[in-house]
Amino acid sequence: MHAFRQKNKIFNKTELSDDYSSKGIEEAFIYDATNDYLYIDSIANERMSRKIHQNQTSMMYESDMLKKVIVDIDEVTNLDDGRFIFHDELPSYITLLEIFCLEEKKINHLFYGLTLREWTRGFATLKYLCDRDGTIRTYSNHEMRGWFSKAGLTDIAIDKFISAITFKKNSKDLYDAPLIKTSGGNYIFYTPAYFSASIVHILLSLFSTYKIDMSEKGLGFERLVLRLLSNKNIRSGGLKFKEGGDEYEYDALFILDNKVFLLECKNTMLSFGSVKTAKRKNQFFHSTAKQVKRLVYGLKKHPSHFNKKFMVNIDDYDIVPVIMNRLPFSWPGEFEGVYISDFSSFDKLLSTPVLTGHTYQKNDESDDYTIDNLKVMHRQWKSDVLTAEDILNHFKMPYQVKEYLDVKKTSEHWIQPSESKVYCHICYEVDYEQLLINQTSVFGLINY
Known about the structure:
24% strand, single chain, 14 helices, alpha+beta
């Protein structure tokens, strides 16, 4: 289940059924990607998209954000004048700051030469142009630079941004790189990719393509995890020691009931639909699992360091090894002897005994929106107090993953590029119709 395997089969004319032969088909290529890992990977991407949408929706309904969105780009005076070019620019920026664990003093950290503020403004400008012009059109170099300048970007930032989003040989698609440079130096903007595009999704996908190093942001994530545990009054802390020539470093350890949870914090990208990236992620988890199991060995082999820090005997506890992701990738059950969880679901687990859902109700007199129709979706704690057993149950089958596993289906996608050949891609997919039924039935909108 953990392995990354795909099966390819080629059938010639003698192996095909009469149904195909009678249609003149002589060869069939079958690509079987019914892989459990790939489906879990697709769930992570889906959860990320949902989180982005929820953040944007809550900001639109629960704040005066829309009043800060300009109508005409000429209203912008500079990048930090408190105005925004598109309605999802501000929530996208805030979401990205959360994802990368950037505190106030580090918000000007450069990612591939630009700050997150410059990245979000650049993509917001593209969405503004898409909304303004509608169809695919060509801009001169001067005209394209002029729009980004009006949006408040500096000349240096404009150079870097245009270079990053111009389509190249190694570009993944026109979603990441929507500008096509002509031989005359003009730019064709492929607007269809941006009619309903998510700035966060685009940017994270682009960062994945450029393999941007996330290691510097890892320390921020470790602090975030430890702060969460501390705020919940859970005994926790990091640990680092040397024994002989071996060094052991623990991002976060916490004690609950008869368990010691060992968290290895990772702030890495999702695949965003790239099979190549998903395969690298799978290999990363295999290697990280070995790393985590080495840390478990270190605690058992050299218990005095833990015992001194936490003033307990580790021999009295079971050690639970966990890879904790910043982005929403969780694996149900053990993966090579360790659990894989994510901060979003873990935060919710520690914060509330139940997961709830709600709708928004508009106040006709004030045009404000209030939360309405609050419903319990899932109970996370067996009682009113969080226990180690609750946490283990979550790791074994997180609700955020289960709701997608419950609607998994096998799909076949056929393509016939010529009269004599056919291609078929077989994969696991989310049954969105059933997912919608499951979700809306909770609110009484559909009764089954």
